[in-house]
Design goal:
The chain is of the alpha/beta class. It is 37% helix and 17% strand. The protein has ten helices and 13 strands.
């Protein structure tokens, strides 16, 4: 649990840990936080939707509360359009959180709130900290990027402290300029957060495809991955984690196929894998780094954060990258070269 020394000082507290339900990344990176804090504190988990359902399975003995949904809808391929269309619901959810947190603190005798980018959970009634790696919001339009970044930092500064899950040294930061602490009133770099750790395992899986993200982009990515798999040598051992409970269209060419996996299961599979193909979500990247795995990153199209992370880490030579519209042609070549 590297990078969690800041949290080890919390003992004998009543703590609400509340990750954002925006994909599973915020929930999965809270796993090491929950594991560490639950040893010496009383915890309550707060979230909504798929993130809350997943955390309840991971930690069935920890009580939970349901928090307002941010309700992002993905009708457009352009992420900023989705956010713009969902902004009334976002504002409402943050306002509902702000109103609800006072009641939660009083009802459950909370003395510490740890929010993972749920922006409405700052409170004057007890200590509140927020986990955030994205301090600066990327966008091709510099004006939009600046406006979004200022708004984001204003919300983060309402908390007593910001915990940044990245390395402090500028040249070694995983998130590059995204996690630059400039503009924050009080912050600490706590190092990468990952639910995964290296364990002894036979490297009997040549390549694992780990899928994630909202529909319909996740399903489109899965369809492209199947086309790539058909181009790989039949001798390869190939696994896929679909990241969905929707019906599976095909398992042809797969040695192992899983819909959803818990932390123990995904950790075991990735330790067995020689190579991983995945999206370039920040939590996924932190897991890959923790396991010291070689990987090929394919950002979700028109999602500026993932596109920036893939380009940033590709330029540094940390991972190989390609794009979705080139993956059917390029990915088989890349996989063969890395194996």
């Amino acid at each position: 649990m590297n990078g969690l020394s800041q949290l080890r000082s919390y003992v004998g507290r009543r703590i609400l840990v509340a990750p954002l339900n925006w994909g599973l990344g915020h929930a999965t990176r809270c796993v090491p936080i929950i594991q560490l804090l639950s040893a010496n504190n009383d915890l309550i988990i707060g979230s909504d939707g798929a993130a809350l359902a997943w955390l309840r399975k991971e930690f069935p003995d920890i009580p939970y509360i349901k928090l307002p949904s941010y309700g992002i809808r993905y009708g457009s391929q352009q992420m900023w359009i989705n956010i713009l269309r969902s902004s009334p619901r976002l504002v409402q959810a943050i306002h509902e959180e702000s109103s609800m947190i006072s009641q939660v603190v009083a009802a459950y005798h909370i003395d510490l709130v740890i929010s993972d980018h749920r922006l409405g959970l700052s409170t004057d009634l007890c200590e509140s900290v927020v986990v955030a790696h994205q301090i600066h919001i990327p966008h091709r339009n510099n004006v939009l990027a600046s406006m979004a970044s200022v708004t984001n930092r204003n919300f983060l500064n309402r908390f007593d402290h910001v915990l940044i899950p990245d390395r402090e040294e500028e040249n070694h930061r995983i998130a590059g300029k995204l996690s630059e602490s400039k503009g924050l009133v009080s912050s600490t770099y706590i190092g990468p957060l990952s639910r995964c750790n290296i364990v002894p395992a036979d490297l009997d899986v040549d390549v694992s495809f780990v899928l994630s993200g909202p529909e319909p982009s996740r399903q489109g990515f899965e369809d492209l991955c199947h086309k790539v798999i058909q181009s790989l040598p039949a001798s390869y051992s190939v696994a896929m984690v679909r990241g969905s409970s929707l019906p599976n269209k095909s398992s042809q060419g797969l040695s192992y196929c899983h819909d959803l996996m818990n932390t123990e299961e995904i950790n075991h599979l990735l330790n067995r894998s020689k190579l991983v193909v995945s999206r370039s979500g920040y939590s996924t990247i932190m897991d890959l780094l923790a396991l010291q795995k070689q990987a090929i990153l394919i950002p979700t199209p028109n999602q500026p954060e993932q596109e920036y992370l893939a380009a940033h880490l590709g330029e540094k030579g940390v991972y190989s990258t390609t794009t979705e519209n080139r993956m059917v042609e390029e990915l088989p070549v890349l996989i063969k070269s890395l194996l």
